[in-house]
C-alpha cells in the first residue's frame, strides 16, 4: 500500500481548501489536497452570484464599510454567529478580493456613467463615478444594506476557482483528485492524517501529515432534494464524527430555498418572483395571496418556503414521479422579459427540463440549499478536540453564519476563511515536529480493510445501500425540513435511529471490485445517518425559532435560553443518539441581540424573567 | 495525453514557417486550379479562343516556366500536408473509427481531403507530364486524347476530386486561420459549396465539349 | 404510456480480472423531464449498482459528466432523453484513461495541461494588501471571463481528430487557456514566451482545423475564433523569429 507524507493535508480541493493550501505552500510547506473530483469541479465553482466584500466602489455601495457588512452578517445570522469571527471576516474580505484580482480573477469592473437597474420589477437609473472607473464592481444581493457583491458575470465561483487552482499549480500544491478520505488516523487527541480510497483503482492509500484540514463543503446530500452537488455528501464530516472527540456545531441550522426545480433541484432565481412571477398549486390556482395577503409571493425566503410546504401537506401539491411539487408561473411576463432579464432561468428550464417558461409552468419546490453547521472550530480554524485538525468553508462551523447565512457571504467565506486559517496552519506547522507510529497506521488501515471486506462479503447483513440512504433522506425531508415540530422531529429521530441500525447491516449487491460506486456509498452511509441524527436531534432539543431553524411550536427567538451553539458529539461508535453540549454563541458582543428589521420579530429577550 | 515538455532547445520556429508554407502553397494552387479551369473552359466558347490563349501563354514562356513551377509547388504542398497524414495503419484506423463515431461533416471532409490528395498526387502528376511534355497545347490535341476514351474517364475522376479537394482546402484555410469567424462559418461553407459545384459542372461541360468536338 | 428507453452502455472494469470490454443493454421507462443524470442514477440504483459514471454539479457547470452520447461527446447532465431516439448508446470519452465503464480520468490530463501551459498569471509584481486594486477595463475583464468559462469537460479533445491520432497534441482546451492569458494584461509573458509553449506541431500548428471542438463544446466557447487568433499571432511570431536572427 502506498503511503504519502505531506506537511498539510487538505480533504477537499474547493476554494477554502486550496486557499489554505496556497498559504501553507507560500510559507514553504508541502501541501496536498484530496478531492473526489478534479479541483475545478468542486462545488465552489457552482456558486454563480458573487462574494460579499465592502469595497464600496459602486455608487450603490457608497458609504459601505466592513462595519456595515459586519452588522448585516450578524443580523442575518439572527445573532447566532460568533461576532469575533464575523468581524475578522468583514475586515478581511476587501483585501482578499483585491488579492484575487492580483492572482487573476476577472472581476467585473466599474463602468462610469449612467445605467439602469431593476428593483421589485421597476426600473431605476444610477450614475457610476468617473474616478471609480476600472475598480472592482459590486451587485445587489438579498439581506444587505449596500451593493456589496463582487462578481464575474454569472460565474463568480467558477472564475475564482480557476484562479485558485491555477495558483495551486503555480506554487506546487498537489491535488490528488478522485481520492476519497474514508478514515482519520487519530491517536488520542492528535490527528495524523487520513486513510483514503483511490477512485481510480479502488486501492487504499495512507496520507500522513502534520496538519490535516477538512474543507469538503456542505452535506446537502443527506436530504433527498438539494441544490448541492452530488459530491456534497458529508463524507469528510463522517471522519470527524467517527473520532468521537470532534463536535459538529449547529447542525440543525439548515437553509432552504423556495424555488428549486423538479426533478434536478437546480435553483431558479428569486428574481422570478421579484418581477411578478406567481406560485400555483395542482389546480393551477394561486395560493400565496391567501396565506400572505400583503406580500404574497414576495414574502421572505423562509416564509414562502414554509407556506409552500404547508400547501403541499394540505394536499394541493402536484404529484410527479419525482415527488410532489408546485408550479412557478412566469408566462405573463412575456417572451422579451423572460429571454432578456431572466435569461438564466430560461436557459435552465430549456436545457434541464425541456420546458419553455414562456408558454409552460415551471415545476418547483422548497429545496435544501446550505448547511450553516459543520466541524466546529475556534477562530483560527482549529477543530475542537483534535490537535492538528483544522477546517474552513461550508464544512466548518467557524461560525460567521449563525442560523442563517446571507447570499454572497458563503462564497466570500471560502477564500477569507481559507486565507486566515491557512496562515494559522502555517504558524502551527512552524516548529511542529511529530512522530508517526507505524502500528497505529496499520491498525487503522486494517480496520478499514475489514470494513470494506465486511461490506463486500455481506458479513453484517444484506441491506440495500441505496434504499437505506433513501430512507434517511426521506426521514430528514419529512421531519427536519423548513417547518419543525416536536412530534415531527421525534418521529424523524426515531426513524433515523432505525435507519442507523439498517445502515450498520448494509451488504453490497455488486462485487465491490475497483472503483465500485456502491462501496463508496456504503462506506459513508452510517456516518451520514449519524449526521442526520445530529440535525434532527439538535433541532428537537432547540425549543425556539432562530434564523432558518423554525419551530412551529416555539415561534419566538429565545435569547434568554438559546443564545448558544449546539455542539453534537458521537462519543461512542455504538451510541444511538448524539451527545449534545452547548456553548455561548459569541464571547465578544459588538452588537447585542435585537430586531433584524425583516422577517418575524417575536423575541424572548435575555432580560425576560424565566417563567 | 502524455504531453511531455517540448525538449529544451527544440524550438518550433520552423513548425510555424511550415504551416505558413502549407497554407500559401495551398492557396496558390487553389488560384491556379480555378484559373486553369476557367481558361480551359474557353474551349466551350470556341476552340480558337482556347488555342489563342494557349498560344499567348506559351509565347510569353509562362507555360514553360510556370508549369514546372506549379509542379514544384504541387509537390511541396503534398510534402507539407503529408506531415499531418497518418501513414501507419493504426493511425488510419483511429481516424476512420473517429469519423464514423462522431457524425461530423468537417471531420469527414478532412478524410475526403486526404484520400483525394493521394489520388490527385498520382493523376495530376500524369496529367502535368502529358500536357507539358507535348507542347504546344491545342484544343485539337486535347480533344483527340479525350475522344480516345481512357482520358475521358481519367478526367471524369480527376476533375471532381480536384475541385472537392481545392474547395475544402479553401474552406479550411478560411476557418483555420480565422479569416472566417464562427458567425460566418455556415454562410462561408455554403459559398464554398456553390463554388465547388459550379467548377465541377464547368469541368464536365468542358469535357463534354472536347468529347463531342470534331477533330480534323 | 411513456417510452421504454434502451440504453447500450460500454462496460469494463479494469480492476476486475474477469471483466472484458463489452456493451450492455439496460431498459428503463422514460419519465417527464428525464435527463441522462436521472436515467443513469436510476439504472445504478435499480439495476446494476456497480455501474460507473461521473456526475457532480448535475447543472452543466462543473464538466464532470462528459461522455460520448450517440456518437457525440457532450455533457450527460443536460442531455434530455426526450431529445434522443429510444435507443441511446453511451461510451466513455476517448483520449483519456479509462477508469471504468463511462468514467475517465480527465483530472490527470488537465493537471498536466496546467503545467505544460503554465496556466497562471506570470508577473513580477507583488501583492500589496494596503493598496487599492489595479484598475482594469470592464470590457477586458468580460473578454477574459468569456475564455475562462471552460469547464474542462474534455469534450473538445475527445472530438478532435488530431488529438485522437497524435498523443502529443495539446488540444483546444489548452490552446484556449493560452489565449486566456495572452489577452490578460496582468500576465507579463511575451509572444515569444507563448511561442515556446504552443508554437509547434504539438501546439497551434498541429491543429488541422476540423472544428469538432467548436461544434461539441457544451459551453459554446468561441474556440474557432481563438484557434484562428492564435494561429495568426504565433504564425507572425514564427516569421519574426526567423527573419530577426
The biggest beta sheet of chain A reads:
7 strands, mixed
Major sheet of chain C: order of its strands? 2-1-5-3-4
CATH H level, superfamily name of the largest domain in chain C: Alpha-helical ferredoxin
Q: Please trace the helix and strand order of chain C, writing H or E for each element.
A: EEHEEEEEHHHHHHHH
Large-scale geometry of chain C: elongated
Strand content of chain A: 15-25%
Number of strands of chain C: 7
Fraction in helix of chain C? 25-40%
The CATH class assignment of the domain at 438-557 in chain A is Mainly Alpha
Set down the secondary structure blueprint.
The complex is a heterotrimer of chains A (611), B (216) and C (245).
Chain A (H helix, E strand, L loop, with lengths): L1 E10 L3 H12 L4 E5 L15 E2 L13 H11 L6 H21 L9 E7 L2 E7 L20 E2 L5 H16 L2 E4 L1 E9 L2 E9 L5 E11 L20 H9 L4 E2 L4 E8 L9 H4 L3 E3 L7 H4 L9 H16 L9 E4 L5 H6 L2 H11 L8 E10 L2 E3 L12 E3 L4 E2 L11 H21 L8 H20 L7 H15 L3 E2 L1 H18 L13 H25 L8 E2 L5 E2 L5 E6 L9 E6 L18 E2 L7
Parallel strand pairs in A: 1-2, 1-10, 2-7, 10-17, 16-18, 19-20, 21-24
Antiparallel strand pairs in A: 3-6, 4-5, 8-9, 9-10, 11-16, 11-22, 12-15, 13-14, 14-15, 22-23
Helix pairs in contact in A: 1-4, 1-11, 2-3, 3-11, 5-15, 13-14, 13-15, 14-15
Chain B lengths: L12 H28 L1 H4 L1 H13 L2 H21 L6 H14 L2 H28 L6 H9 L2 H27 L8 H28 L4
Helix pairs in contact in B: 1-4, 1-8, 1-9, 4-6, 6-8, 7-9, 8-9
Chain C lengths: L3 E8 L10 E8 L6 H11 L19 E4 L2 E4 L11 E5 L5 E4 L2 E3 H12 L20 H11 L6 H4 L2 H5 L6 H11 L8 H8 L13 H5 L6 H22 L1
Parallel strand pairs in C: 1-5
Antiparallel strand pairs in C: 1-2, 3-4, 3-5, 6-7
Helix pairs in contact in C: 2-6, 3-6, 6-9, 7-9
How would you describe what is shown here?
The complex is a heterotrimer of chains A (611), B (216) and C (245). Chain A has 611 residues and is an alpha/beta fold. Chain A has helices at residues 15-26, 66-76, 83-103, 156-171, 235-243, 271-274, 288-291, 301-316, 335-340, 343-353, 409-429, 438-457, 465-479, 486-503, 517-541; strands at residues 2-11, 31-35, 51-52, 113-119, 122-128, 149-150, 174-177, 179-187, 190-198, 204-214, 248-249, 254-261, 278-280, 326-329, 362-371, 374-376, 389-391, 396-397, 483-484, 550-551, 557-558, 564-569, 579-584, 603-604. Among the domains of chain A are: 256-369, Succinate dehydrogenase/fumarate reductase flavoprotein, catalytic domain (Flavocytochrome C3, Chain A, domain 1); 438-557, Fumarate reductase/succinate dehydrogenase flavoprotein-like, C-terminal domain (Methane Monooxygenase Hydroxylase, Chain G, domain 1, Up-down Bundle), CATH 1.20.58. In chain A, strands 1, 2, 7, 8, 9, 10 and 17 form a 7-stranded mixed beta sheet that branches. In chain A, strand 8 (179-187) and strand 9 form a beta hairpin. Chain B has one domain: 3 helical TM bundles of succinate and fumarate reductases (Up-down Bundle), CATH 1.20.1300.10. Chain B contains 9 helices and no strands. Chain B has helices at 13-40, 42-45, 47-59, 62-82, 89-102, 105-132, 139-147, 150-176, 185-212. In chain B, 26% of the residues are buried. Chain C has 2 domains: 4-103, Beta-grasp domain (Ubiquitin-like (UB roll), Roll); 118-244, Fumarate Reductase Iron-sulfur Protein, Chain B, domain 2, CATH 1.10.1060. In chain C, helix 6 packs across helix 9 and helix 7 (191-198) crosses helix 9. The longest helix of chain C is centred in the C-terminal third of the chain and has 22 residues, at 223-244. The interface between A and C is large, with 76 and 72 residues.
